[in-house]
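B., you asked whether I could sanity-check this one before it goes into the benchmark set. Here's the sequence:
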Amino acid sequence: MEIEKIIDLLPTACQASDLPLPGRAEGKVRDWYTLPGGRRLLVTTDRLSAFDKVLACIPYKGQVLNQLSAWWFDKTRDVIGNHLLSLPDPNAAEVIEVQPYPVEVIVRGFITGVTKTALWYRYSLGERSIYGYTFPEGLKKNQPLPQPIITPTTKGGPTGHDEWLTVAEVVTHGFVSAAEWEQITDAALALFARGQEISTRAGMILVDTKYEFGRAPDGRIVLIDEVHTPDSSRFWKTSSYPQRLSAGQEPESFDKEVVRLGYVARGYQGSGEPPAMPPDFWAEASALYIQSFEVLTGESFTPASYPVGPRLAQNLKKAGLLP
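And here's what the prediction gave me:
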């Protein structure tokens, strides 16, 4: 998609939804509402968060996340069930209501990252015992780990930010029972393996990702929120990765890391007021999200109409989810 067209749409990016439905709540990226019959409506906005802050709203980001998650839910349902019932709109999902587990499951296949919680950032400061794992000397940024590891975090924590845990602490601190945690970690590693397999066929490397799980009304553990999107995952271009690694260059990214790196290049690491970024920076980020969708799925992205609000309401009425 042309950068100029995306720039023109920046003022109309979906900052929030406002629907005549009960139980409205808001996360960093999604708004959700209560529906009858043990269901919820998730609206994926165009909000972009990094460094635990909402930094901007960029066109089509919400549509990419919503539709790409639905694609991955379908590709992984034999690994573990999920909460998705339908997509009544490009930015909305009808899901079953579940009890979310209070931890996010981060699976890492490489040592990388620039934020203060990233594996490479902490290793570069001299730490060798990180997230309950011991790492040897001599590792290089962006190289693969011997095998994927799980590094859980809380959701929000006492400070309002995600707080890291070791795998053992999830159980010993009472967040999840031992039996359920075993099922969750087994599912997370299997999901990551499936994600890497499919991404490899698309010419991409699935580097790391975040999963969320919940307990369905019938007691099943299911995958929720989103899966293998440019927001929740890190993707690199396979063909250029070896050369860039050898040269000490950053891999070609197809995810939100380009936004983080743009801020880091301006000296921002997450503390204080973030610097203002030009419109073309955000338009290029939007185009990258779209490209990620197309490369991973092998499908063409069909941009939905803007502004999102009127179209969303119309589609929800057609689906019988709005009066």
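One thing to flag: The chain has a mean pLDDT of 95. Otherwise nothing jumped out at me.
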